[in-house]
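Q: Trace token order:
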Amino acid sequence: MDKRLAVVTGGTRGVGAGIARAFAEAGAEVVVCARRPPEVPVEGVEFVPVDLRDPAAVRAFFDGLPRVDVLVNNAGGAPYRPLAEADAERHARVIELNLTAPLTASLAAYEHLQRARGSVVMIGSLSGTRPSPGTAAYGAAKAGLENLARSMAVEWAPDVRVNTLVVGMVRTELSHLHYGDEDGIAAVSRTVPLGRLAEPSDVGSAAVFLASDAAAYITGASLHVHGGGERLAFLDAATVNKEQRQKDPKGQQRHQQDQQDQQGK
């Protein structure tokens, strides 16, 4: 990443800060943009205030940069909100932040990226690949973002590569809002095959890889950063061989694989 300029939207905390830190450690010049400055600045990272839902402000921001080699569209998120408990306008704002804003930023950065033969990394989510109760608009936006990236990769090739990181659960300073106290976080971690939530640095390392020359022939791809995915509920609900699994916890994984193999047949 030496001598490359990377822009990370929403890079002031959590996953975004982890991504910004990873690019800085890889030698890139890093600029992060968000509405509010970081509470804890990342060393070697410049902050510029930008409201990503304001297209004119986004265009002015990118026009003011000397170059852009990498754009990481990370800004996003949504509160827990069942569909029927809010009006369509409020859900539309979630879609605007998580889908329209990345499109706006990508278009504003396009000429820079084309000149640099650069790379766009979309930060997607598992919520866009399965039902997302309580965050339905967010899940729909992330599903759209992944599809947008695939189309963008075709339209902008060969000059600009575009890929998506499909991110699972990440431990950040806001994890308690999603998973509860330490006991809740530990319980949720046990549902992940690797036995833990991702760290922001895990996502950052994957983003650096996709933006680097090591991924020079990768575009239109979706890289899953989810620790193996989410445990399937039916495996715990099934009564077949449950007693054996309880007596032989180490054999439980073999049992799960046997079930999956049978389904595959």
About this structure: Residues 136 and 155 are 29 Å apart (CA to CA). The first helix runs from residue 14 to 25.
